[in-house]
Amino acid sequence: MKFVVSSSELLYHLQAVSRVVSNKSSIPILENILFELAGDKLTITASDLESTMVTSMSLDNSEGEGLVALPAKILLETLKKFPEQPISFDINNDSLAVDILTDRGKYSVVGLSGDEFPEIPEVDKDKSSNLLLPASVLLAGINKTLFATADDELRPVMNGILMEMSPENLTFVASDSHKLVRYQRMDATTEFSSSFILPKKPASFLKSVLVKEDGDVTIEFDDKNAFFVMENHRLVCRLVEGNYPSYNAVIPQDNPNKIIVNRQEVVNTLGRVSLFSNQASNLVKLSITGDKMMVSAQDIDFSISAYENLSCQYSGDAIEIGFKSAFLAELLDNISSEEIVMELADPARAGIFLPLENDGPEDELMLLMPMMIN
Q1: What is the pLDDT of residues 48-69, one digit of tens each?
Q2: Which of 177, 238, 252, 257 could bridge to 316 as Cys pair (CB 3.0-4.6 Å)?
Q3: How far, in Å, CA of 256 to CA of 317, rounded?
C-alpha cells in the first residue's frame, strides 16, 4: 500500500494518539502505532490495553489497503524534525518493509503485523447508556477536577473523576482525601440517572484533544468501558471498578463564618508567605477578624517567619485555621472568579471555597481539609 500525506498533519494526529503509547510495555506491539489504510482514509490507533485512542485523516493520494504497526518513537522524533512537506509512505504488505520518502531522502523501517495489535473493545448494548455533550462542557469538567484526583493504589476509585448523570445536572467529582472538587453543569442533563469513574490517564488524554474539538462528544458506556467519539478522535478506556465514596457527606453544611476576598491577592500572598513555612508541613495560618485576614507562616527550625494582611469582607466570629499552602494555592488557581467566598465552621472542619458568583449554568465547589495549628 502507498499513500502521500502532509508531514505536519500526520505529526498532529500522531501526537494526539501517542500519549497513550507506553515506553515500558511488556508487550512489544504496544510500543507501535497502528496504521490502517482503506480507500482514501487513514486510521491511526495507539493503545496501552487500558486505553485506546483512534484518529483518522482523509488522503488525496493513496493506493491499495492494508494494516501495519510502526514504531511510535522513531516516527514521532523524525516527523518533529521535518519542515512542512508532502511525505510518501511505501509499505510492502508481505515483508512489512516501509520506505518513507521525502524530496531529499528516504527513511526505512520494518513494521510489525497489524493483526497482532489488540482489538478495540465493543460496547455491551444490553448494559450501555449514552449521552451527547458539547466538547466545551466535557473539557471544563475535566479541567476543574483532574488536579484533585488521587494516586492511591489501595483505593483505585479515588484515582479518577466521578461523572454523575441525572435529569437535574451533570456532576464531575474528584478527591484525594485532602481536597475535593465538585463541578456541576445544569445545562447538561439526561433522562436517566447513572455514573461511572473515568480514570486519570484517559481523562488527561481527553483534555489534550478536546481543546481542538468544537462540536459535540458522544459518550457511550457500559459496566466496563467508556467510549468517547469526537469529530476527529475516538477514545476507548476501561473504567475504574468500584463505588465512589459518598462525597456529599463530607461537605460541611451551615458554615457560620463567611469571608469574601480577592482570589488573586490571596494567591500572590500565599506565594510569598509560604516560602517561610516549614518545608515538611508547608503550613500557613489564616487569622480572620473584622475586615482583615492575616496570612502567616513560620519555620522555627530556621528562625524564619512572615505574615501579610489582606482586606476582606467577613461575617462571623474571629477564627484561626491552618492549611497546606500548596493545596490551597492549587484550589484557588482552579476557581474561575475574581472574588471568592470562603466558608468556615471551626479550625477542625473542612473549609469550603466558592466563586462569589457562579457563571450561568455552572456550579463549582471546592473543599480543603485543615491542618492542626501547633
Answers
A1: 999 999 999 999 899 999 999 9
A2: 257
A3: 8
